[in-house]
Write a sequence for this structure.
């Protein structure tokens, strides 16, 4: 079969094309690899920052619950008794804080000293005394509302 | 080709900058305030349950409570530098506080006078 002169297989052009292809492939792999590493680092940074934000919120919420919330027992002179907690009022405190903050879901519960975190969320605890004069752990757990 | 090199250099720089920023201390939770609050909680719990009524002598009930607090939290308590949590990790000669130690001054009122006491809470070494 005859081939016209302008349709002849050009070995030189073909070589250049293959050469370019083989050069571009590792560069593309490198770029894809870098983008993947960047995505991983970014996700890690976002997770760390979110964890810090949530931790700070939990610390503030726990401090409010222990010192100023409705669950804090009031003595006969009308003074708040920080760290003295009425367990029966904790659910309303939980509800109030949850209503005020839409970004996080939190859960406040009172447990024995030896009791571990009540769920898989990020939790902190404070030491409080219940109305029976028992020292207990007040767990404040939370997570992002959209997670 | 130069454009490609510029893109690659930028990507490397961006990756390095992001990683460096993400490793800085300010991105990680700071536990200092929380530890201070926990130390104050222990003081308040002892106060509310009457554990400090006989200070500087702690009654056995207060010692039991401090033992329970150690079992639940891993925190040792020292009053005026003297270990008051009766647990081997807190009182043994090789024991003592780790670097995560909170020391605060507390005013203690008795019948006729007021004393300032050093209250220390820490995790054992």
């Amino acid at each position: 079969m005859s081939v016209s002169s302008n349709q002849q297989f050009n070995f030189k052009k073909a070589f250049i094309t293959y050469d370019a292809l083989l050069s571009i492939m590792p560069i593309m792999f490198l770029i894809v690899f870098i983008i993947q590493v960047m995505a991983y680092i970014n996700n890690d940074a976002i997770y760390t920052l979110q964890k810090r934000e949530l931790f700070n919120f939990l610390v503030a919420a726990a401090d409010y619950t222990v010192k100023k919330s409705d669950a804090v027992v009031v003595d006969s002179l009308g003074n708040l008794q920080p760290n003295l907690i009425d367990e029966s009022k904790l659910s309303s405190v939980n509800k109030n804080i949850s209503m005020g903050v839409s970004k996080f879901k939190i859960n406040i519960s009172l447990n024995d000293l030896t009791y571990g975190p009540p769920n898989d969320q990020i939790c902190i605890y404070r030491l409080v005394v219940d109305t029976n004069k028992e020292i207990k752990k007040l767990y404040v757990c939370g997570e992002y509302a959209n997670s | 080709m130069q454009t490609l090199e510029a893109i690659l250099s930028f990507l490397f720089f961006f990756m390095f900058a992001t990683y460096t920023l993400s490793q800085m201390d300010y991105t990680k939770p700071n536990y200092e305030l929380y530890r201070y609050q926990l130390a104050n909680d222990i003081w308040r719990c002892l106060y509310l349950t009457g554990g400090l009524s006989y200070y500087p002598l702690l009654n056995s009930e207060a010692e039991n409570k401090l033992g329970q607090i150690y079992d639940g939290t891993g925190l040792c308590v020292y009053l005026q530098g003297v270990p008051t949590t009766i647990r081997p990790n807190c009182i043994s000669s090789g024991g003592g506080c780790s670097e995560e130690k909170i020391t605060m001054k507390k005013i203690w009122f008795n019948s006729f006078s007021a004393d300032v006491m050093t209250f220390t809470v820490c995790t054992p070494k």
In short: Chain A has a mean pLDDT of 87. Chain A is about 45% helix and 25% strand.
